[in-house]
Protein backbone atom coordinates (compact mmCIF):
# COMPACT_ATOMS: atom_id res chain seq x y z
CA UNK A 1 0.00 0.00 0.00
CA UNK A 2 2.80 2.42 0.85
CA UNK A 3 4.48 1.98 -2.53
CA UNK A 4 1.21 2.77 -4.31
CA UNK A 5 0.82 6.01 -2.40
CA UNK A 6 4.39 7.02 -3.27
CA UNK A 7 3.80 6.37 -6.99
CA UNK A 8 0.49 8.24 -6.90
CA UNK A 9 2.16 11.14 -5.09
CA UNK A 10 4.96 11.22 -7.66
CA UNK A 11 2.44 11.40 -10.50
CA UNK A 12 0.53 14.18 -8.79
CA UNK A 13 3.77 16.05 -8.13
CA UNK A 14 4.65 15.97 -11.83
CA UNK A 15 1.17 17.18 -12.72
CA UNK A 16 1.37 20.06 -10.25
CA UNK A 17 4.80 21.05 -11.56
CA UNK A 18 3.41 20.93 -15.11
CA UNK A 19 0.52 23.24 -14.29
CA UNK A 20 2.86 25.67 -12.51
CA UNK A 21 5.20 25.74 -15.52
CA UNK A 22 2.32 26.32 -17.93
CA UNK A 23 1.00 29.26 -15.93
CA UNK A 24 4.42 30.78 -15.35
CA UNK A 25 5.28 30.53 -19.07
CA UNK A 26 2.03 32.22 -20.00
CA UNK A 27 2.55 34.93 -17.38
CA UNK A 28 6.13 35.61 -18.45
CA UNK A 29 5.11 35.93 -22.09
CA UNK A 30 2.28 38.32 -21.21
CA UNK A 31 4.59 40.40 -18.97
CA UNK A 32 7.24 40.60 -21.69
CA UNK A 33 4.93 41.72 -24.47
CA UNK A 34 3.03 44.14 -22.21
CA UNK A 35 6.37 45.71 -21.31
CA UNK A 36 7.33 45.94 -24.99
CA UNK A 37 4.01 47.52 -25.93
CA UNK A 38 4.82 50.47 -23.65
CA UNK A 39 8.05 51.27 -25.51
CA UNK A 40 8.30 53.64 -28.46
CA UNK A 41 10.30 51.24 -30.59
CA UNK A 42 7.97 48.39 -31.39
CA UNK A 43 10.21 46.63 -33.92
CA UNK A 44 10.93 43.75 -31.55
CA UNK A 45 7.25 43.51 -30.61
CA UNK A 46 6.06 43.40 -34.22
CA UNK A 47 8.79 41.20 -35.72
CA UNK A 48 9.49 39.07 -32.61
CA UNK A 49 13.18 39.47 -33.40
CA UNK A 50 15.15 38.44 -31.40
CA UNK A 51 12.95 35.54 -30.41
CA UNK A 52 12.68 34.80 -26.70
CA UNK A 53 12.50 31.05 -26.09
CA UNK A 54 11.86 31.20 -22.34
CA UNK A 55 8.04 31.41 -22.29
CA UNK A 56 7.72 28.68 -24.89
CA UNK A 57 10.24 26.55 -23.03
CA UNK A 58 8.30 26.85 -19.79
CA UNK A 59 5.08 25.84 -21.52
CA UNK A 60 6.78 22.90 -23.26
CA UNK A 61 8.26 21.75 -19.96
CA UNK A 62 4.83 22.07 -18.39
CA UNK A 63 3.24 19.86 -21.04
CA UNK A 64 6.03 17.30 -20.65
CA UNK A 65 5.64 17.26 -16.86
CA UNK A 66 1.87 16.85 -17.20
CA UNK A 67 2.36 13.97 -19.64
CA UNK A 68 4.85 12.25 -17.32
CA UNK A 69 2.47 12.68 -14.40
CA UNK A 70 -0.44 11.22 -16.36
CA UNK A 71 1.69 8.27 -17.50
CA UNK A 72 2.80 7.56 -13.93
CA UNK A 73 -0.78 7.70 -12.65
CA UNK A 74 -2.00 5.63 -15.62
CA UNK A 75 0.60 2.94 -14.93
CA UNK A 76 -0.36 2.99 -11.26
CA UNK A 77 -4.05 2.59 -12.08
CA UNK A 78 -3.43 -0.14 -14.67
CA UNK A 79 -0.87 -2.21 -12.76
CA UNK A 80 -0.87 -1.17 -9.12
CA UNK A 81 -4.37 -0.24 -8.04
CA UNK A 82 -5.91 -3.67 -8.69
TrEMBL record:
Which residue spans traverse the membrane? 6-25, 61-79
What does the UniProt keyword field contain?
Membrane, Transmembrane, Transmembrane helix
The identity of this protein, by name, is Uncharacterized protein
What is the organism field in this record? Dehalogenimonas alkenigignens
Q: What is the lineage of its organism?
A: Bacteria, Bacillati, Chloroflexota, Dehalococcoidia, Dehalococcoidales
Amino acid sequence: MGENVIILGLGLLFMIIGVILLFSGHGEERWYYDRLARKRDLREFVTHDPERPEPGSLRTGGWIALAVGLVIIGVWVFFGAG
